[in-house]
Protein backbone atom coordinates (compact mmCIF):
# COMPACT_ATOMS: atom_id res chain seq x y z
CA UNK A 1 0.00 0.00 0.00
CA UNK A 2 1.31 3.42 -0.98
CA UNK A 3 1.71 5.76 1.98
CA UNK A 4 0.15 9.17 1.75
CA UNK A 5 2.69 11.96 1.90
CA UNK A 6 1.03 14.87 0.19
CA UNK A 7 -1.72 17.22 1.30
CA UNK A 8 -3.14 19.63 -1.25
CA UNK A 9 -4.59 22.79 0.28
CA UNK A 10 -6.64 24.94 -2.10
CA UNK A 11 -6.21 28.56 -1.02
CA UNK A 12 -7.10 30.61 -4.06
CA UNK A 13 -10.61 31.73 -3.03
CA UNK A 14 -11.46 35.40 -2.67
CA UNK A 15 -12.92 35.19 0.83
CA UNK A 16 -15.93 37.37 0.02
CA UNK A 17 -17.86 35.96 2.99
CA UNK A 18 -15.39 37.66 5.30
CA UNK A 19 -15.12 41.13 3.82
CA UNK A 20 -13.87 43.66 4.80
CA UNK A 21 -11.25 41.63 6.73
CA UNK A 22 -10.20 39.89 3.51
CA UNK A 23 -10.02 42.97 1.30
CA UNK A 24 -6.24 43.25 1.48
CA UNK A 25 -5.19 39.95 3.08
CA UNK A 26 -5.87 36.32 2.23
CA UNK A 27 -8.69 34.74 4.23
CA UNK A 28 -6.34 31.85 5.03
CA UNK A 29 -4.24 34.28 7.08
CA UNK A 30 -7.09 35.28 9.41
CA UNK A 31 -5.94 34.33 12.90
CA UNK A 32 -7.60 31.83 15.18
CA UNK A 33 -6.30 33.15 18.50
CA UNK A 34 -2.74 33.96 17.34
CA UNK A 35 -2.20 31.48 14.52
CA UNK A 36 -3.31 31.96 10.91
CA UNK A 37 -6.02 29.52 9.86
CA UNK A 38 -3.76 27.92 7.26
CA UNK A 39 -1.11 27.13 9.86
CA UNK A 40 -3.72 25.14 11.80
CA UNK A 41 -4.42 23.17 8.61
CA UNK A 42 -0.73 22.53 7.86
CA UNK A 43 -0.15 21.40 11.46
CA UNK A 44 -3.09 19.00 11.18
CA UNK A 45 -1.50 17.52 8.04
CA UNK A 46 1.86 17.15 9.77
CA UNK A 47 0.19 15.45 12.78
CA UNK A 48 -1.34 12.93 10.37
CA UNK A 49 2.15 12.23 8.96
CA UNK A 50 1.80 14.29 5.77
CA UNK A 51 4.86 16.44 5.32
CA UNK A 52 4.65 17.33 1.64
CA UNK A 53 2.23 20.20 1.36
CA UNK A 54 1.06 21.79 -1.87
CA UNK A 55 -0.82 25.05 -1.46
CA UNK A 56 -2.85 26.18 -4.46
CA UNK A 57 -2.73 29.95 -4.43
CA UNK A 58 -3.74 32.84 -6.63
CA UNK A 59 -3.41 36.60 -6.80
CA UNK A 60 -3.02 38.42 -3.50
CA UNK A 61 -1.86 35.36 -1.56
CA UNK A 62 1.80 36.29 -1.09
CA UNK A 63 1.38 36.61 2.68
CA UNK A 64 0.90 32.82 2.85
CA UNK A 65 4.30 32.18 1.26
CA UNK A 66 5.96 34.74 3.52
CA UNK A 67 4.35 33.13 6.56
CA UNK A 68 5.88 29.70 5.91
CA UNK A 69 9.25 31.15 4.91
CA UNK A 70 12.16 32.11 7.18
CA UNK A 71 12.22 35.76 8.20
CA UNK A 72 15.85 36.56 8.96
CA UNK A 73 15.10 40.13 9.95
CA UNK A 74 12.57 39.04 12.53
CA UNK A 75 14.77 36.18 13.73
CA UNK A 76 17.71 38.58 14.15
CA UNK A 77 15.54 40.93 16.19
CA UNK A 78 14.17 38.14 18.40
CA UNK A 79 17.66 36.80 19.03
CA UNK A 80 18.99 40.24 19.98
CA UNK A 81 16.02 40.77 22.27
CA UNK A 82 16.65 37.40 23.96
CA UNK A 83 13.23 36.08 22.95
CA UNK A 84 14.53 32.58 22.29
CA UNK A 85 11.27 30.68 22.75
CA UNK A 86 9.56 32.88 20.18
CA UNK A 87 12.59 32.57 17.89
CA UNK A 88 12.37 28.77 18.00
CA UNK A 89 8.65 28.92 17.31
CA UNK A 90 9.14 31.17 14.27
CA UNK A 91 11.85 28.92 12.85
CA UNK A 92 9.69 25.84 13.39
CA UNK A 93 6.92 27.28 11.21
CA UNK A 94 9.28 27.30 8.25
CA UNK A 95 10.59 23.83 8.99
CA UNK A 96 7.57 21.74 9.92
CA UNK A 97 6.86 20.60 6.37
CA UNK A 98 8.01 20.86 2.77
CA UNK A 99 5.67 23.45 1.42
CA UNK A 100 5.23 24.06 -2.30
CA UNK A 101 3.04 26.51 -4.13
CA UNK A 102 1.31 26.54 -7.45
CA UNK A 103 -1.00 29.21 -8.77
CA UNK A 104 -4.45 28.35 -9.98
CA UNK A 105 -4.49 31.10 -12.62
CA UNK A 106 -8.20 31.49 -13.23
CA UNK A 107 -10.55 30.82 -10.31
CA UNK A 108 -12.64 28.10 -11.97
CA UNK A 109 -13.79 26.24 -8.90
CA UNK A 110 -12.58 23.74 -6.31
CA UNK A 111 -12.32 20.90 -8.82
CA UNK A 112 -10.09 23.01 -11.03
CA UNK A 113 -7.92 23.98 -8.05
CA UNK A 114 -7.36 20.30 -7.21
CA UNK A 115 -6.67 19.48 -10.88
CA UNK A 116 -3.83 22.02 -10.82
CA UNK A 117 -2.08 19.73 -8.28
CA UNK A 118 -1.73 16.86 -10.76
CA UNK A 119 1.81 17.50 -11.88
CA UNK A 120 3.06 17.76 -8.30
CA UNK A 121 1.13 14.78 -6.96
CA UNK A 122 1.70 12.40 -9.88
CA UNK A 123 0.46 8.83 -9.60
CA UNK A 124 0.12 8.75 -5.81
CA UNK A 125 -2.78 8.88 -3.37
CA UNK A 126 -3.05 12.24 -1.65
CA UNK A 127 -5.15 14.28 0.76
CA UNK A 128 -7.14 17.44 0.04
CA UNK A 129 -7.73 19.80 2.96
CA UNK A 130 -10.00 22.82 2.60
CA UNK A 131 -8.71 25.76 4.57
CA UNK A 132 -12.18 26.99 5.56
CA UNK A 133 -12.75 23.78 7.47
CA UNK A 134 -10.81 23.93 10.68
CA UNK A 135 -10.49 20.95 12.98
CA UNK A 136 -9.83 21.62 16.63
CA UNK A 137 -6.62 20.39 18.19
CA UNK A 138 -7.97 17.06 19.38
CA UNK A 139 -9.47 15.99 16.06
CA UNK A 140 -8.14 12.73 14.63
CA UNK A 141 -10.33 12.84 11.52
CA UNK A 142 -7.50 13.17 9.01
CA UNK A 143 -5.27 10.55 10.60
CA UNK A 144 -8.24 8.16 10.86
CA UNK A 145 -8.91 8.71 7.16
CA UNK A 146 -5.26 8.00 6.33
CA UNK A 147 -5.53 4.75 8.30
CA UNK A 148 -8.69 3.80 6.38
CA UNK A 149 -6.96 4.47 3.09
CA UNK A 150 -4.07 2.29 4.20
CA UNK A 151 -6.51 -0.51 5.00
CA UNK A 152 -8.73 -0.32 1.90
CA UNK A 153 -6.56 1.46 -0.69
CA UNK A 154 -9.49 3.62 -1.77
CA UNK A 155 -10.61 7.23 -1.61
CA UNK A 156 -12.15 8.38 1.67
CA UNK A 157 -14.47 11.37 2.26
CA UNK A 158 -15.07 13.05 5.61
CA UNK A 159 -18.82 13.14 6.33
CA UNK A 160 -20.87 14.86 9.00
CA UNK A 161 -24.61 14.92 9.68
CA UNK A 162 -26.42 18.22 9.18
CA UNK A 163 -30.03 19.29 9.50
CA UNK A 164 -31.80 19.06 6.13
CA UNK A 165 -32.14 22.83 5.82
CA UNK A 166 -28.34 23.26 5.97
CA UNK A 167 -27.40 20.52 3.51
CA UNK A 168 -27.70 22.86 0.50
CA UNK A 169 -24.41 24.49 1.45
CA UNK A 170 -22.48 21.25 0.96
CA UNK A 171 -21.75 18.24 -1.13
CA UNK A 172 -24.19 15.54 0.03
CA UNK A 173 -23.55 11.78 0.07
CA UNK A 174 -25.88 8.80 -0.20
CA UNK A 175 -24.24 5.96 1.73
CA UNK A 176 -24.61 2.43 3.08
CA UNK A 177 -23.23 1.46 6.48
CA UNK A 178 -20.10 -0.71 6.73
CA UNK A 179 -19.37 -0.42 10.44
CA UNK A 180 -19.42 2.19 13.23
CA UNK A 181 -18.14 5.31 11.55
CA UNK A 182 -17.31 3.74 8.18
CA UNK A 183 -19.73 3.91 5.25
CA UNK A 184 -19.61 3.14 1.58
CA UNK A 185 -20.48 6.07 -0.65
CA UNK A 186 -23.14 5.28 -3.26
CA UNK A 187 -23.65 8.74 -4.73
CA UNK A 188 -22.63 12.36 -4.20
CA UNK A 189 -24.30 15.56 -5.31
CA UNK A 190 -23.12 19.16 -4.93
CA UNK A 191 -25.33 21.56 -2.97
CA UNK A 192 -28.71 19.86 -3.52
CA UNK A 193 -31.98 21.58 -2.58
CA UNK A 194 -33.12 20.25 0.82
CA UNK A 195 -35.99 18.33 -0.84
CA UNK A 196 -33.60 16.69 -3.34
CA UNK A 197 -30.85 15.82 -0.83
CA UNK A 198 -30.19 12.07 -0.86
CA UNK A 199 -29.29 12.10 2.86
CA UNK A 200 -28.36 14.37 5.75
CA UNK A 201 -24.64 13.59 5.41
CA UNK A 202 -22.52 16.49 4.17
CA UNK A 203 -19.05 16.19 2.69
CA UNK A 204 -16.56 18.05 4.87
CA UNK A 205 -13.31 19.57 3.69
CA UNK A 206 -11.05 16.54 4.24
CA UNK A 207 -10.57 14.02 1.45
CA UNK A 208 -8.18 11.21 0.59
CA UNK A 209 -8.05 10.50 -3.13
CA UNK A 210 -6.60 7.82 -5.31
CA UNK A 211 -4.78 9.43 -8.28
CA UNK A 212 -7.60 8.39 -10.66
CA UNK A 213 -9.48 11.46 -9.43
CA UNK A 214 -7.33 13.54 -11.81
CA UNK A 215 -8.71 11.84 -14.94
CA UNK A 216 -12.21 12.37 -13.57
CA UNK A 217 -11.48 16.05 -12.97
CA UNK A 218 -10.45 16.41 -16.60
CA UNK A 219 -13.76 14.98 -17.74
CA UNK A 220 -16.15 17.06 -15.65
CA UNK A 221 -17.98 20.00 -17.17
CA UNK A 222 -18.78 23.15 -15.20
CA UNK A 223 -21.54 22.27 -12.71
CA UNK A 224 -23.20 24.08 -9.78
CA UNK A 225 -22.41 27.80 -9.92
CA UNK A 226 -20.70 27.38 -13.33
CA UNK A 227 -17.62 25.94 -11.58
CA UNK A 228 -15.63 22.75 -12.04
CA UNK A 229 -16.92 20.86 -9.00
CA UNK A 230 -14.81 18.38 -7.08
CA UNK A 231 -18.04 16.63 -6.13
CA UNK A 232 -18.84 15.92 -9.80
CA UNK A 233 -15.41 14.32 -10.25
CA UNK A 234 -16.05 12.20 -7.14
CA UNK A 235 -19.33 11.03 -8.72
CA UNK A 236 -17.37 9.95 -11.81
CA UNK A 237 -14.73 8.19 -9.71
CA UNK A 238 -17.55 6.25 -8.03
CA UNK A 239 -18.33 4.63 -11.37
CA UNK A 240 -14.85 3.03 -11.37
CA UNK A 241 -13.90 2.53 -7.74
CA UNK A 242 -15.37 2.08 -4.30
CA UNK A 243 -15.23 5.25 -2.21
CA UNK A 244 -15.55 5.19 1.57
CA UNK A 245 -16.91 7.76 3.92
CA UNK A 246 -15.70 8.42 7.44
CA UNK A 247 -18.52 9.84 9.57
CA UNK A 248 -17.47 12.06 12.45
CA UNK A 249 -19.31 14.39 14.79
CA UNK A 250 -17.14 16.89 16.55
CA UNK A 251 -14.38 19.39 16.16
CA UNK A 252 -15.05 20.92 12.75
CA UNK A 253 -15.73 24.59 12.14
CA UNK A 254 -16.40 26.46 8.92
CA UNK A 255 -14.36 29.57 9.57
CA UNK A 256 -15.64 31.21 6.38
CA UNK A 257 -18.85 31.58 8.37
CA UNK A 258 -18.65 34.37 10.93
CA UNK A 259 -20.52 32.56 13.68
CA UNK A 260 -18.46 29.39 13.25
CA UNK A 261 -15.31 31.51 13.18
CA UNK A 262 -16.20 32.86 16.62
CA UNK A 263 -17.01 29.35 17.90
CA UNK A 264 -13.68 28.01 16.62
CA UNK A 265 -11.78 30.87 18.21
CA UNK A 266 -13.41 30.27 21.59
CA UNK A 267 -12.87 26.50 21.50
CA UNK A 268 -9.25 26.80 20.43
CA UNK A 269 -8.63 29.44 23.09
CA UNK A 270 -10.02 27.34 25.95
CA UNK A 271 -7.90 24.37 24.81
CA UNK A 272 -4.73 26.45 25.14
CA UNK A 273 -2.55 25.89 28.18
CA UNK A 274 -1.42 29.50 28.41
CA UNK A 275 -4.79 31.21 27.81
CA UNK A 276 -7.31 28.50 28.63
CA UNK A 277 -7.70 28.82 32.42
CA UNK A 278 -8.09 32.62 32.44
CA UNK A 279 -10.30 32.61 29.37
CA UNK A 280 -12.63 30.02 30.90
CA UNK A 281 -12.99 32.20 33.99
CA UNK A 282 -13.78 35.16 31.77
CA UNK A 283 -16.41 33.20 29.84
CA UNK A 284 -18.09 31.94 33.01
CA UNK A 285 -18.18 35.51 34.31
CA UNK A 286 -19.53 36.82 31.00
CA UNK A 287 -22.32 34.26 31.00
CA UNK A 288 -23.39 35.49 34.43
CA UNK A 289 -23.04 39.19 33.77
CA UNK A 290 -24.93 39.13 30.50
CA UNK A 291 -27.39 36.56 31.85
CA UNK A 292 -26.72 34.32 28.84
CA UNK A 293 -28.24 31.25 30.46
C1 LIG B 1 -16.89 22.93 -0.87
C2 LIG B 1 -17.33 21.67 -1.65
C3 LIG B 1 -18.48 20.99 -0.95
C4 LIG B 1 -18.10 20.66 0.48
C5 LIG B 1 -17.64 21.96 1.20
C6 LIG B 1 -17.10 21.60 2.59
O1 LIG B 1 -17.91 23.87 -0.96
O2 LIG B 1 -17.68 22.06 -2.97
O3 LIG B 1 -18.81 19.79 -1.63
O4 LIG B 1 -19.20 20.11 1.14
O5 LIG B 1 -16.60 22.62 0.47
O6 LIG B 1 -16.82 22.75 3.33
P1 LIG B 1 -17.66 25.44 -0.66
O7 LIG B 1 -17.60 25.58 0.82
O8 LIG B 1 -16.37 25.80 -1.33
O9 LIG B 1 -18.84 26.15 -1.26
Overview of this protein structure:
This protein is an alpha/beta fold and 293 residues long. It folds into two domains: 6-256, Alpha-Beta Complex (Spore Coat Polysaccharide Biosynthesis Protein SpsA, Chain A), CATH 3.90.550.10; 257-293, no CATH class. The protein has eleven helices and 13 strands. The strands form three sheets. Strands 8-11-9-10-12 form a five-stranded mixed β-barrel. Strand 2 (31-32) and strand 3 (35-36) form a beta hairpin. Helix 3 (72-80) packs antiparallel against helix 4 (84-95) and helix 8 crosses helix 9 (230-238). It is globular, with a radius of gyration of 20 Å. It starts with 5 loop residues before the first strand and ends with a helix. The model has no long low-confidence stretch (mean pLDDT 94). Bound molecules: 1-O-phosphono-alpha-D-glucopyranose (G1P). The site of 1-O-phosphono-alpha-D-glucopyranose has 13 residues, from strand 11 and helix 9.
Amino acid sequence: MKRINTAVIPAAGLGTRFLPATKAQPKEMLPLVDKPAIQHVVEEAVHAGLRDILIITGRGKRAIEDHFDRSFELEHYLEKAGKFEMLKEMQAIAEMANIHYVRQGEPRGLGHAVAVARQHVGDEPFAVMLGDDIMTGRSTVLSDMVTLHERYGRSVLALKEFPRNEISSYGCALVEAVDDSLVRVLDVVEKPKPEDAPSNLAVMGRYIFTPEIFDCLEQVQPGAGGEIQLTDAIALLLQQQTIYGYVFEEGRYDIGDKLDYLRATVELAIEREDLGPKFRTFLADLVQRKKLI
